[in-house]
Design brief:
- With 409 residues, this protein is of the alpha/beta class.
- It folds into two domains: 20-286, Rossmann fold, CATH 3.40.50.620; 305-405, Anticodon-binding domain of a subclass of class I aminoacyl-tRNA synthetases (Four Helix Bundle (Hemerythrin (Met), subunit A), Up-down Bundle), CATH 1.20.120.640.
- It is built from 13 helices and 14 strands.
- The protein has a five-stranded parallel sheet with strand order 5-4-3-10-11, with helices on both faces. Strands 6-7-8-9 form a four-stranded antiparallel sheet. A three-stranded mixed sheet has the order 13-12-14, with helices on one face.
- Helix 1 (53-71) links the parallel strand 3 and strand 4 (75-82).
- Helix 4 (129-145) crosses helix 6 (224-235), helix 11 (353-364) packs antiparallel against helix 12 (369-385) and helix 11 (353-364) packs parallel to helix 13 (393-405).
- It is globular, with a radius of gyration of 22 Å.
């Protein structure tokens, strides 16, 4: 599966600093010091609907991570999946009377267009669950053969008891996990399971649903969590720098994925930091496909909204914060974009060297994009009010905003 084209990232003078970021597993800031190649895995979409603002906010957060690392003169090995076979996709395809493969391809293509418009840097590997199946089957067989998985009516479940570190990603107790499991795709009430929290690794073929040859597992399709584990281990290995996604993935998805990987390899942890973006609400409720309260990036673009303004609207909120999308949020972003563009359109201006360092410092401090925006606001206000004599300053500001914030002025 191919990703989307990369926008050019300007190279800034000097060098950025190492990123300090919040790790869900320790509930504190950690300073990441990757080697020459920083490794990040971000969970992708289930393509049964278009990209909404909640998606965009999540991928914007991890785009900032990449930009901070690139500013340290490192390479970035970024991997993202597409869950192109799963119950929600199959249910939507049946509801709309469309082939599930065609639906997945259509929505994945639209996602690529949205990511390109928003100047999100693409992953090096963009892998669909279906194409990952040949690598998933041997992992499930290994877990089963090692006693970390068991069969129940043809389905294969992972035993959470096989991982002594189970629970260390989310930090939740068993009761909270059980509630979230039921809400987020698990089946804690299925009889016959060794532990209500045990997640499915391989679903035996169901009539009328797609299935694949699973070797000794029989025909079926993979569970959600093992999909990402197979892709991450294949392309990044254990101990990569960041596992990322929305905060609703901390449990069960990232918790279960970590346990799968640790049971497979005997190593801990799967990722050095588990980083989660907040949720975006609309009309007082979390924006989600199940609720239908969505603001689509593609719809905003069709309505003539500049993608740079959409990006500024996202950047105005700290990535870990839960916030609400409103007309005012977008209006403020459009106005800010206009001020910034007016400021950099002049041939000279106030010195920008200190501003570049302010943006860098804000972003390495747990991706504090609102502080970075405030710094650019101050420079723009000074430029529009008093001007300056540094001929290169507007160009420096334009390149810094592009390189570090992904906003083209």
């Amino acid at each position: 599966m191919h990703a989307w084209p990369a926008s050019e990232v300007p190279v800034l003078p000097g060098k950025g600093r190492d990123l300090r970021i919040h790790d869900t597993a320790t509930d504190g800031l950690v300073t990441l010091d990757p080697g020459p190649v920083a490794r990040i895995y971000v969970c992708g979409i289930t393509p049964y609907d278009a990209t909404h603002i909640g998606h965009a906010a999540t991928y914007n957060a991890f785009d900032l991570v990449q930009r901070v690392w690139l500013d340290t003169k490192r390479q970035v090995h970024y991997v993202q999946n597409v869950t192109d076979v799963d119950d929600p996709l199959l249910e939507r395809a049946e509801r709309d009377g469309i082939d599930w493969v065609a639906l997945a391809e259509k929505e994945t293509a639209l996602f690529r267009e949205d990511m390109t418009a928003l100047r999100m840097l693409p992953p090096r590997e963009y892998i669909g669950a279906v194409e990952a199946i040949p690598g998933i089957v041997p992992l499930v067989e290994r877990l089963r053969d090692a006693g970390a998985a068991y069969e129940l009516e043809g389905d294969i479940y992972f035993s959470v008891e096989a991982d002594p570190d189970f629970g260390k990603v989310s930090g939740l107790d068993a009761a909270a996990m059980r509630l979230l499991s039921a809400e987020r795709g698990g089946d804690p009430d299925r009889s016959g399971k060794k532990n209500p929290l045990d997640p499915m690794l391989w679903m035996a073929a169901r009539e009328g649903e797609p299935s694949w040859d699973g070797g000794s597992l029989g025909r079926g399709r993979p569970g959600w969590h093992i999909e990402c584990v197979a892709i991450a281990l294949d392309h990044l290995g254990m101990g990569f720098d960041i596992q990322g996604g929305g905060s609703d993935l901390a449990f069960p998805h990232h918790e279960m994925g970590a346990s799968h990987a640790q049971a497979l390899t005997g190593e801990f942890p799967m990722a050095k930091a588990y980083v989660h973006a907040g949720m975006v609400a609309l009309h007082g409720e979390k924006m989600s496909k199940s609720k239908g309260n969505l603001v689509f990036v593609s719809k905003l673009r069709r309505d003539g909204v500049d993608p740079a303004a959409i990006r500024l609207a996202l950047l105005a909120h700290h990535y870990r914060a839960d916030w609400e999308w409103t007309d005012q949020v977008l209006q403020d972003a459009v106005a800010r974009l206009g001020r910034w563009r007016a400021a950099v359109s002049r041939p000279d201006g106030p010195s920008a060297e200190a501003l570049v360092e302010e943006i860098r410092e804000a972003l390495v401090n747990d991706l504090d994009a609102p502080a970075a925006l405030a710094a650019v606001d101050r420079w723009a206000a000074l430029q529009l009010d008093q001007g300056g004599t540094d001929e290169g300053a507007p160009g420096v500001v334009s390149r810094a905003v592009d390189a570090l914030l992904g906003v083209a002025l």
